[in-house]
Amino acid sequence: MKLLSIAVPCYNSAAYMRHCIDTLLTGGDQVEILIVDDGSTKDDTAAIADEYEARYPGICRAIHQENAGHGGAVNAGLKAATGIYFKVVDSDDWVNEEAYREVLETLTRFVYGDETLDMLVTNFVYEKQARSERRS
To answer: What letter does residue 90 receive in the DSSP assignment?
Structure first.
């Protein structure tokens, strides 16, 4: 069982989803990354999801479905999740790797400690980044 399941809803996200997934991969074997292709039709989103599943078996899983909207993609990720905890990270977002490590350490302490944790709330920062920067 994984510590954290992360659903990444994707809809025609080929231009930027790799950056999102690459930052999530720094969680290693503690996480499962559920890449939910929500019926993408205009780009290679589905193929990229399959590529990550093939390159990172046991960590990345591609889920393909007909378009059900953001909520439908989140629910598909939740249904497939096997982790103790669950998080949604949209395909055009990414995580700060240092903060991500701290979150995983905190979750680990509660899983193996005497206290229980129902929810972990963290802050997040919005950064404006030009689309051309995202693609590199």
So the answer is: -
Strand 60-65's sheet: what is its strand order? 60-65, 31-38, 4-10, 85-88
Give one word for 131, left, alpha or beta, with left for phi > 0 and alpha for psi -120 to 50: alpha
Give the range of the structural domain holding residue 78, as residue numbers without chain letter: 4-134
CATH code of the domain covering residue 10: 3.90.550.10
Which tens digit of pLDDT belongs to each residue from 63-85? 999 999 999 999 999 999 999 99
By the 8 A CB rule, do 5 and 86 touch? yes
Nearest CA to 100 among 17, 6, 15?
6
Burial of residue 64 (number of CB atoms within 10 Å: 0-12, 13-18, 19+)? middle
* Count of domains observed in the chain: 1
> pLDDT value at position 129?
55
Enter the pTM of the model: 0.90
